[in-house]
Amino acid sequence: MKKLFVKILFVSLLQTFFLSNAQISQLFRNKDRLDNLEAFDEQTYSWGFFLNMNNYDYKIVLNPKYGIYNKQNLVQSKPTYSFGAGLIGKMRLNEYFDLRVEPGLQFVDRELTFNTQVNSSALVLTDADKIRRVKSTYVDVPVLLEFHVDRWYNSRPYVAGGLNYMMNLQSNSSASDDNQQGIFRTTTHNFGWSAEMGIQFYFSRFKLTPGFRGTFFFNNELVADNPGTPPYWAAAMNTIQTRAFMFVLKFE
Fold first, then answer.
1. Helix H or strand E encompassing 208
2. Does the pTM of the predicted model rise above 0.85?
3. Transmembrane ranges (predicted)?
């Protein structure tokens, strides 16, 4: 399913690129220029969908006893690139402000490396013990307030910001096993804030919006290991908080 979605996203990006090249001169021509979708932004409600590439990472605050040795950080986070998709619902507030709700799914894969055995000798760590692949599927529901300026020919820049609720469907928060059995646990329900900027392009039949978004969690996502588990994993960290950067393509 993941490979199929990546192929679909790649084809969509190619189609968008070629379509943009074919129509870009029409978008910004002065002579005999026609404004596309002139009444589109006068609608009180509108909808669309989006595709995105994402890069998720953890901001980690280490425990000074178990996560740091000789001023060296013993836990490292490695982000990877993945993808997401969702729907767009927009309500026009006035000439310059819109309210947007953009529920979607974000598929995330991260890797944590624990070189923490130097602080304890309770267990000999194997290479498998040192690596935790943290896979997450977030149901992301951002509510954003968008501010845009007047259209310039067939384009319009904007900025947006707001709050997110994100449910992690692969959090393992209720699992009885922990890192000693290879299970890294995080919280299911999370909250954060997002900021976004981009440019809206008006074509003859639709509006295309490429944009960049950053999302940052408020809460600590770490679930402690069970009592009796050696302090190599969760105990080596005080807090972990997701931070994400996305390139988004919106179609309305």
1. strand 207-217
2. no
3. none
